[in-house]
């Protein structure tokens, strides 16, 4: 007998979403187990200070006590700034968390060594909201790095589907493999 696989429920598009600035760096994560073990990762692998990705593992281990305040779980974000992708004209690197519903200054601020990707819109998903967020970046520049006038684009987190989508200001119609370097 063949194992039956049902069709997954389809999420409604017109539900809550958060549109954030897509910061152009390299994906990073901090994983803290329930037992307090501390792991550092890139998008594709675990990293260490000896086998690093743009210095993120070294930075994280130097701030381990502070980062443990994140608590158990996987904490994804972008490691960006000096020497990574667009660099944003910054003399330093920064770590910005993606989970904007958990890490907000009013409710639960992240540890001082971390920031959170800027929320450009929060509400019911519409393509107009996406277009408006892109226009805000196109005309006003980066919200994450004020004064930087070449932001990458936006990330839309659609809460009903629990999925992410991105839209870039340049070459959005091209596959990523054609318009950028591969990141770890």
How many domains would you count in the coordinates? 1
Strand order of the largest sheet: 4-3-2-5-6-7
| Beta-strand content bin | 25-35%
Q: What is the averaged pLDDT score?
A: 94
Radius of gyration computed on alpha carbons: 18 Å
What is the CATH superfamily label?
A: DNA ligase/mRNA capping enzyme
From the N-terminal CA to the C-terminal CA, the straight-line distance is 42 Å
Query: How many alpha or pi helices?
Result: 4
Return the structural class. alpha+beta
Query: How many beta-strand elements?
Result: 10
Name of the top-level CATH class:
Alpha Beta
Helix content: 10-25%
In N-to-C order, the SSE pattern is EEEEHHEEEEHEEH
According to CATH, the fold-level topology is D-amino Acid Aminotransferase, Chain A, domain 1
The shape, in one word, is globular
What's the CATH architecture name?
Answer: 2-Layer Sandwich
Major sheet: 6 strands, mixed
Describe the structure.
The chain has a single domain, classed as 2-Layer Sandwich (D-amino Acid Aminotransferase, Chain A, domain 1), CATH 3.30.470.30. It is built from 4 helices and 10 strands. The chain has helices at residues 56-62, 64-67, 127-140, 176-179; strands at residues 16-22, 26-32, 38-42, 46-47, 73-81, 93-97, 115-116, 119-124, 153-158, 163-168. Strand 3 (38-42) and strand 4 (46-47) form a beta hairpin. The longest helix has 14 residues, at 127-140.
